[in-house]
Specification:
Layout lengths: L24 H21 L3 E5 L5 E4 L1 H6 L19 H15 L4 E6 L9 E10 L5 E10 L1 H59 L3 H26 L5 E3 H15 L6 E6 L3 E3 H21 L9 E9 L2 E8 L16 H13 L2 E5 L6 E8 L3
Parallel strand pairs: 7-9
Antiparallel strand pairs: 1-2, 1-5, 3-4, 4-5, 6-8, 9-10, 10-12, 11-12
């Protein structure tokens, strides 16, 4: 598009007395004589839309490149029109206020939407400032409008993306909340089912006549109950995927102690608040339950009144350490753990291997037994 010819205007004459940078008076006179041409050349070369508004608010000049940007083929169509009426109605008050501010010697800046003369949507960054006469009064108002449509479109696109992400996040959050409720309900039902199975096994153990059957049923009930406790922890915990050992292990220890209450052994726990996933919780619960049952059943002589087992768990550097220590007769044989069949020792060995840990035993003669399980903190 060929830029239309600009309508000539009369700019304020440059006052030579105001030019202190030129030492040669002839140079000053030359600058004064050519100032209008020089300023016009600057305005015409600007890539922005440059306009001059008269004191009555009417448009008297627009540079050629500005006419191209505004898609104005003939400047005479808008010349002499009130500048603010060329804008959408919602913006006219803001445009009028900027002109008023310029007439009072102030500069203002506006970001506004205005379509071109041919209806092309455009966003503009507009600065409005006074043009001073040699006497310091406001002679005209200068407006420079820069097309920022690409920037606004990018910002709008980013805002749309942000909104889409926010909507997606809200949808995912709602789905997770529904999943959380569903999983807690599942854990609740699984816990109840396992607890019922454990209860049936304990009832059968009480009815059993043979000591071996009673022992095996009791051990089976304890193992089922260990898994039930995991689902109980998942049901009531803040996170449906992790278990707090400081709540879980003491509950398992209390269950074992209650089941073997006739042994008269005191069981204490000191567990740090460590969270692990449900699989690791089951493994740790099984190991602790088997070691505790073994200690209560086999570590003490009959009728010993001061028998005790202390269970501790905590972090040691990069490792997690679980200890089951008794003050019984001593000995590190795990072959008869829990039920006399060797199943308990196989369970312990299996889960220690699954956790990638090591199990060591310390048993000074006559000074009790301590089993220590050490495993990586993260598995």
């Amino acid at each position: 598009m060929t830029p239309p010819r600009a309508t000539p205007i009369s700019l304020p004459t440059l006052d030579p007395s105001g030019l202190t940078c030129a030492a040669d008076p002839s140079v000053v006179r030359q600058l004064a004589d050519t100032s209008d041409v020089f300023v016009m050349a600057l305005l015409d070369s600007s890539p922005d839309c440059v306009k001059l508004i008269e004191l009555d608010g009417t448009l008297s000049y627009m540079n050629p490149k500005g006419q191209c940007a505004m898609e104005i083929d003939d400047f005479t169509v808008v010349a002499g029109a009130e500048w603010k009426v060329l804008w959408p109605e919602v913006t006219q008050d803001e445009i009028a206020a900027s002109v008023t501010a310029a007439l009072n010697g102030e500069t203002s800046r506006i970001e506004a939407f205005c379509p071109t003369a041919k209806g092309t949507p455009r966003w503009w960054d507009i600065s409005v400032s006074p043009v001073l006469a040699p006497d310091g009064s406001v002679a005209r108002v200068l407006s420079v409008s820069r097309d920022i449509t690409p920037i606004i479109e990018r910002e709008n696109k980013l805002r749309r993306y942000d909104q889409q992400l926010a909507d997606l996040n809200a949808d995912l959050t709602a789905q997770l909340e529904r999943t959380d409720v569903l999983m807690r309900e599942i854990d609740h039902r699984v816990k109840n089912s396992l607890a019922m199975i454990a209860g049936i096994l304990r009832m059968q153990a009480r009815k059993a006549v043979a000591l071996e059957a009673k022992t095996r049923l009791t051990s089976a009930a304890a193992r089922v109950n260990t898994v039930a406790r995991v689902h109980e922890s998942l049901q009531v915990g803040e996170n449906i995927r992790t278990v707090d050992l400081s709540l879980y292990l003491p509950a398992i220890a209390a269950d074992v102690s209650d089941a073997l209450t006739e042994r008269g052994v005191s069981v204490t726990t000191e567990i740090e608040p460590i969270t692990v996933d449900s699989d690791r919780a089951v493994a740790l619960g099984m190991i602790m339950s088997e070691l505790l049952t073994n200690a209560v059943k086999h570590a003490f002589e009959e009728n010993r009144a001061d028998g005790s087992v202390a269970i501790t768990a905590g972090l040691d550097g990069e490792d997690m350490v679980l200890r089951v220590a008794d003050n019984g007769r001593g000995g590190c044989d795990l072959s008869g753990v829990s039920d006399g069949t060797g199943l308990g020792s196989r369970i312990v060995t299996l889960y220690v291997s699954q956790l990638g840990g090591t199990l060591v035993c310390d048993s000074p003669l006559g000074s009790g037994t301590t089993f220590e399980l050490r495993l990586p903190r993260e598995g």
